[in-house]
Design a protein that fits this description.
Blueprint (H helix, E strand, L loop, with lengths): L10 E3 L2 E4 L5 E2 L13 E12 L4 E17 L9 E4 L2 E13 L2 E12 L2 E3 L14
Antiparallel strand pairs: 1-2, 2-3, 4-5, 5-6, 5-7, 6-9, 7-8
């Protein structure tokens, strides 16, 4: 077991780890925990290309993203976890017409919708833990 505390020659006495040239500076206290608050997401995208002629081409694409991402994960009780529901929709339409080899017209139209709602998965569940509410 390495008690080097960052490689500074630390010593451990009475459960306190110290470091430094005289072993009087306490190391950073750490608390590690693994609690559930997973990222759930699905993504759907598609694209269609169509060539009317050598001079006219069009394509369209769409993307739908639905997800629930962890914003805050409470290390003590998962009732206090906060998640962010982030729906996103986007689409694009591109039309290209070639008049001559040196003159080209290109139209690009696109839309985007994004929302981020930060909330507890069950807003009423933490209230019994606080009798004053």
């Amino acid at each position: 077991m390495d008690n080097s505390c960052g490689g500074l020659g630390a010593t451990t006495a009475n459960g306190v780890t110290t470091a430094g040239p005289f072993a009087t500076t306490p190391c950073l206290a750490q608390y590690r925990v693994s609690v559930p608050n997973g990222n759930r997401e699905w993504l759907l995208s598609g694209r269609v290309d169509y060539e009317f002629s050598d001079k006219d081409k069009i394509f369209g694409r769409v993307k739908f993203d639905r997800g629930s991402q962890p914003t805050y994960t409470d290390p003590i009780d998962p009732l206090f976890n906060i998640q962010s529901n982030q729906p996103q929709n986007e689409g694009q339409l591109n039309y290209t017409h070639v008049f001559t080899p040196r003159v080209v017209n290109n139209f690009v139209g696109s839309v985007l919708y994004y929302s981020a709602l930060f909330q507890s998965p069950n807003s009423a569940a933490p209230f019994p833990h606080f009798p004053l509410f």
